[in-house]
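User: Some background: our group keeps a shared notebook of sequences we're curious about, and every so often someone picks one and asks for a predicted structure to add to the entry. Today it's my turn. The entry only has the sequence so far, pasted here. Could you supply the structure so I can complete it?
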Amino acid sequence: MTLIFDTRLGAAEILRSEGCEVADIHDVGIQKRSPVRICILNLLADKPVAEVQWLRGLSYAECDAEVSFFMVESYKPKHTPQAYLDMFYKTTTQIMNEHYDGLIITGADAEKYRFRNCAYWPELERIFDWADRHGAGTLFSCWSAMAASYHYYGIDKVMTGPKISGVYPHRMPHPEHLLMRGIKEPVLIPHSRISKPEEEKVFSRLTVLAENGWPAVYCDNQKKRVFLLGHWEYEPYVLRDQYVRDTSKGFDVKEPENYFDQDGNILTDSDWADPFHLLMRNWVRWIQCR
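Assistant: Of course. Here's the predicted structure to add to the notebook entry:
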């Protein structure tokens, strides 16, 4: 398969070095293909890092995938130059006039706020409603998974107290589900968050696909909504860097669990990349089933 996007993005060189087949979205020959079309709402501050992570995941699809990025209009990011956004990102208004097979919404650095206090909450609700009417399959990651659970099902979030950070094994209640095909139990998933959805409501209202006392992956089969509370997209070093960042700021946080060995090295068996790649392959296949 070929991953089709704006190859002026730095992600192109990284993915090519990893053996991914990459093509430019503006190439006339490529435009004659009929790829699955994916749009990503990137809410994270470090946008280039998120671009690489999600493009890498989509590179494991079994078909050509065309990927575009967009941003909310009601909030101006503080960490990304406007020129970068103008070059590589569409706006909410623009994407609502196009057709996509799938939508991915990343996490956001907004866990400490109530959803309705988020600066772009009204616009995000419009995006949720658009995705619903549009009929596209949607994948929500971390904060956006909790925000969408609140919007669609009235499932609020609660603060966890101590930060949940580490790599945890999860059981799979429905290993036969298309989204979990090929993934072996127990499945390792990294977590890094200070809040969680009302867990009993998730278990009673939605299909939980991976859990460790808390739901980590769940879905709405009818609406083809997938909610990922963990961070399968993370590179191995990310939890370490977050821990160093938090401690350098004086935050009282514990070391990520099940992550470092006795010498402070990242455990080599904390490998969650393969399950993530399988999930993304399965997700693309799932949203193509009409």
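Suggested note for the entry: The longest strand covers residues 157-170. The mean pLDDT is 93.
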